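#struct-help
A.M.: can someone run this one for me? Single chain, 307 residues.
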Amino acid sequence: MTIYLPIAELPIAIFTVFAMGLAVGFISGMFGVGGGFLMTPLLIFTGVPPAVAVASVSPYMAASSFSGALSYWRKGMMDLTLAGVLLSGGLAGTAAGVMLFLWLRVIGQVDLAIRISYALLLGTIGTLMLVESLKALARMRAGQPPTVRRPGTRAWFMRLPLKMRFRRSRIYVSALPVIGIGFIIGLLGAVLGVGGGFILVPALIYLLRVPTQTSVGTSLVLTLVTMAAATVLHAEANGTVDAVLAFVLMIGGTMGAQFGARTGQTLKAEHLRLLLGILVLSVAVRVAVDLVSRPADTFAVTREAQP
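D.P.: on it. Structure tokens below:
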């Protein structure tokens, strides 16, 4: 059955969109990631304009992170003070990202900017994850204990002013790097349609020494609020949020996440990281190939963005 996407301005098979939401939801549940970095390229591959894909994934990300955030909040595995400081930078980054997105649309370079950014971001992260997971598997086969990376206690950013004590996370650090991290995540979320959890969680763990479970719960709060804000801002400033597309994706993603979470619990952490690294790197390669390959149509007719 085919439906017409009013904002994307193209017909698409509803079961194809549902299957994408189901697959990415499964992957999100299995690996514990938001899935926006996979959903946006998949939509672009199926013909959805990159601007619409980024904006329409934002409500999907907000909805998918809501249930997870609620679960962590009920279990007490969330630092609301840390989340509030992160959000002070995250909301500013989201607003800046939407304005940057609008400027790129006005000059007609938003599609190219999104594709290049995805190729660089996913390529870097995928390579790092793949190398780290292969080293971990090699150590495991050799019978060596896993290495634990502990950040230094005298890192330069810990000596910055405006120090705050985050009791739930058991850390005492400057609020400035926390705000900066939130700003970067909000900016990436607005421009690329990613929740940023795959960047934020390692940053909280390795840079600020936040406990892992608290990092995941706090990350979900930031994703929920920034993606909800990005949805409203994109709809108001750019008019690129396709509600029909987002609704179908949310249904499939919610169902797939339940099955993915059960599957992920049966796999070892090293194998999960290896599979995720291969997946991320594969998407980066596909985006890069599309950038340099000859398009099927040598020209396209699009609507002019209103400044």
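A.M.: thanks! The CA atoms of residues 122 and 264 lie 22 Å apart.
D.P.: also worth noting: The radius of gyration is 19 Å.
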